[in-house]
Write a structure and sequence with these properties.
Strand content: 15-25%
Order of helices and strands: HEEHEEHEHEEHEHEHEEEHEHH
Number of helices: 10
CATH architecture of the largest domain: 3-Layer(aba) Sandwich
Amino acid sequence: MTSDDLSKALSQVKYPGFSRDIISFGLVKASEVKDGVAHVQLQIQTKDPKIPQQIFQDCHAILDPLLGNPGKVRIEIDVQNPASSGEASTGSTSLPGVKRIIAVGSGKGGVGKSTVSSNLAIALSQQGLKVGLLDCDLYGPSIPLMLGVPNHQPQADDQDRIIPIEAHGLKLMSMGFLLSDNSPVIVRGPLANRYTQQFLQQVAWGELDVLVIDLPPGTGDIQLTLVQTVSLDGAVIVTTPQEVAMIDARKAVSMFAKVNVPILGLIENMSYFECDHGERYHLFGQGGAERECERIKVPLLGKIPLEPIIGKRCDGGEPTALLSPSESKASAAFHNAAKALLDHVSA
């Protein structure tokens, strides 16, 4: 076995709970084959003892058959405590000029994550903050339509950085600006990771108080690339009340916990429908997000009602949060969620 063979074999070892391997995640600090013995040095930042133990076992499961003898495989793991909140936990850095970076994620699609992201960004902006909104959902970018700029194309500055599109007081970047309406994004994981890094590091964001990042649904490579590229101040998880949505929301919470990103709170979307007579109907169940928040000890930032105006205004490029809170209970809920988020992230 050569050193190249060793690296190729190690690329089959996945980080526990993710689809990405330990090579691309940067955990392998040294690997070589010397005198017929494979030497591997790993460095892992975690408080969970099960993670290095699992990686150790998986490395042996891959390498032992190739070397023919467990004694010819020597694996050293340097387990370090993760960096504190607000510091890079996996070699990531902050973005120049950006004070806070908050990710908005969900365990599954269809819960209204992009709707919440866009309205939350608007509400934060109306608090007097300079806000950017980055659409990292490469495969289904919807932010350009929701913010009323679907046909805009970004330009480059004299430093060859992308100049974000501006709408409703927000600075925006999305794959949707680089595609025509009917063009699908067909990219494998490594290229998707590269796009994510470019959108973060090669965009002229300027001075921002908050950068809101709208993540794709699920717990895949783009999420892992994000936490590896920049230091997040925390994540907001969007869910709906029913248990099937909560199951996937728990996976998202667990994912961020594994990479040492604090959960700032949950937002329950489509929480209830209120008729003209003031009576509320819980169409998708009741209390799911509250119980989950109590279980994991994080705040419930908001409960967004189901209002037809939300979808209509998003399709028209005028998010509901642009309305006065007195005009729409959904707008009031988004503004209250933004205030609760600021209180928590500043605590």
